[in-house]
Specification:
By secondary structure, the chain is of the alpha+beta class. The chain is about 30% helix and about 25% strand. The protein is built from 15 helices and 18 strands. The mean pLDDT is about 85.
């Protein structure tokens, strides 16, 4: 069995930075009481100003200016770790959050689907980079070893038990996952590497240290199994981005909206489902929150399509006040069936998928402005179809050929001697609702070469009545 550990090196900072349009400006995260605000994290631009974790906010403001300040929120850190677990669930059925700011994936059973580990790792890194999370990835035969090795390595892949022992022996004792008091005691004894600790007699270690030390060493080497809790994906998606300034234009809302929808796509891919309706909530300072429902005809999870639909609806919205935060909530998560596509598509740069065009038209023109046709089980042509705003197609229940253009009212045919191509097809129906009709329908060709659908009374009296045209 092989496990991968994805260690997020600055999860709190990434969770804040990815919601900002200007991600290169200096930013620090602070925590603590109002009288003693302390820097917990700083991005590279802030470090260039001399700001470091552990400094008080007051000292940092004396040292430098022009940096942004955000709250170090443990609840948000937990939220992002759960979000990343939902993303990881796409690649493995066994995902664990037992270690803080890390994701453990059982990847051995997924290699047949995602290719060898080198290809699998590249895919994980590419998607994490797109999501905006700094990370280190290590693969090892057991989860505890993968987590410990991720403290000092990035890109390491350990294949077997012999190579695992070699790598574990090279670990500094301070980075192998032992308790801080145990590390301090071993340091006073002059022990710096795990190799030195493993060279000691086990009974001597058992007498001088808690039993957790030997248990942890055996777990790292794969001699002792480690039971992990399995992550269960949430039933709904709910994410919020709070702005550090008031937003009063639709254009400024597009960047956070795109980020929220990209997160929604990652969540849906992990659950292998789609979304048919979601809710955008715009929070204001004094006015009640603005709620903007976004509905689609079918379940989708393409980020570009969802963004285009949401943007079109957002641009039609009149903001009562500047926006302080944007929230996206999706609880209707039906199963997703990918659309069949042609292997060879002609002029793909000039074409647009019908689903995307349909949803964009509905978003711009209104839900009732775009509609389709659905077949009705009725032989009478006037009653055999209906207008629908759903996703029903115009599949016919008739075995006979029907025209693509049906006239609203039949008209007398000017061509008195048409060429009959097929027919008659007799239709007698409607006696139960007072709309009884008895007609013989023919497929004809007119003198100018057009094909038409006409009918005549059953007894042969009266002229031919034009009812529709064929393409």
């Amino acid at each position: 069995m092989r496990w991968a550990c994805v260690l997020f090196t600055q999860l709190a900072l990434d969770g804040v930075v990815r919601g900002r349009a200007d991600q290169a400006s200096p930013l620090v995260l602070v925590a603590g009481p109002a009288q003693r605000r302390v820097i917990k994290a700083a991005n590279p631009a802030a470090r260039q100003l001399g700001l470091r974790p552990g400094q008080s906010l007051l000292a940092a403001q004396v040292l430098a200016s022009g940096f942004a300040v955000a709250e170090y929120d443990q609840a948000q850190i937990d939220h992002w770790q759960r979000f990343l677990a939902a993303w990881g669930y796409r690649f493995s059925s066994h995902v664990s959050l037992d270690y803080p700011r890390a994701l453990l994936l059982e990847v051995e059973s997924s290699l047949s689907l995602f290719g060898p580990w080198s290809c699998f790792e590249r895919r994980l890194r590419a998607e994490l980079a797109e999501l905006g999370f700094q990370h280190r990835i290590v693969a090892a035969p057991n989860p505890a070893a993968a987590r410990a090795l991720a403290n000092v390595h990035d890109g390491l892949a350990v294949a077997d038990a012999l190579a695992l022992r070699t790598q574990i022996e090279k670990l500094p004792i301070s980075r192998c996952g032992l308790a801080a008091e145990t590390v301090a005691a071993l340091s006073r004894m002059g022990l710096r590497q795990v190799k030195q600790l493993l060279a000691l007699p086990r009974d001597a270690i058992a007498r001088r240290f808690p039993p957790e030390v030997l248990l942890h060493l055996d777990t790292l080497l794969g001699k002792q199994p480690l039971a992990l809790d399995s992550y269960l994906p949430a039933d709904e998606f709910d994410t919020r981005i709070e702005f550090n300034f008031e937003v009063d234009s639709h254009q400024a809302l597009l960047f956070p909206l795109r980020r929220l929808i990209a997160d929604l796509q990652a969540f849906l891919a992990g659950r292998d489902c789609g979304v048919q309706q979601f809710l955008l909530m715009l929070e204001h300072r004094s006015a009640a929150e603005t709620r903007l429902p976004v509905g689609l005809l079918t379940a989708e999870r393409d980020a570009q399509l969802l963004f285009e639909v949401a943007r079109s609806r957002l641009q039609q919205l009149q903001l009562p006040e500047p926006v302080l935060a944007l929230r996206l909530q999706a609880s209707n998560l039906p199963a997703f069936t990918p659309q069949h596509q042609e292997l060879f598509t002609e002029r793909p740069q000039q074409s647009q998928p019908w689903e995307q065009l349909r949803e964009r038209l509905r978003a711009r023109l209104g839900d009732e402005a775009v509609y389709g046709l659905a077949a009705v089980a009725d032989h009478r042509p006037e009653h055999s179809w209906r207008v629908t705003t759903g996703d029903a197609g115009a599949t016919s229940h008739h075995d006979h050929l029907r025209p693509g253009w049906l006239l609203a009212e039949p008209q007398p045919l000017n061509d008195l001697v048409p060429e009959i191509l097929a027919g008659p097809e007799r239709i007698e129906s409607g006696w139960w609702d007072g709309g009884d009709l008895r007609r013989d329908y023919y497929l004809i060709r007119t003198r100018d070469g057009r094909r038409a659908w006409v009918w005549q009374a059953v007894d042969g009296s009266g002229p031919f009545m034009l009812h529709g045209w064929f393409a």
